[in-house]
Amino acid sequence: MEDINPLFYVELRDDFDDNCTVREKSPSFPGMIDPFLEARIHVSSGKVYPVLQVKGDHDLLILDDRGFLYETPRQLYKFAEKLF
Question: Over the stretch 26-36, which tens digit does the pLDDT of each residue have?
């Protein structure tokens, strides 16, 4: 198996959970998948994620909570303050 060499590490922004709560009550994208609510399926607050690739101007390729590759909007994350 190949070693994983992340470019850098990220964690969810501090306001992620609050944004999810607001978006559940009042959807921003009626009839579409909300990026915050979808991300909640793959990632958790308080965890650090390795970024394997920056995809275009808006997306990151990370390893999610289950160890799968997950392409996710960059706006949901901040640089990790502590690695682990």
Answer: 877 677 888 88
Question: Residues with Cβ < 8 Å from 74, sequence gap 6 or more?
Answer: 54, 58, 59, 60
The answer on pLDDT for 1 being more than 50 is no
**Above 70 in pLDDT, residue 41?**
yes
d(CA 38, CA 20): 10
Query: Across-strand partners of 59?
Result: 55, 73
SS3 62: strand
Reduced to 3 states (helix: H, G, I; strand: E, B; else coil), residue 16 is helix
In the beta sheet, which residues pair with residue 73?
59
Return the residue matching tokens 């160890």: 67
Compute the Cα dihedral for 17, 23, 28, 29 and give only its sign.
Answer: positive
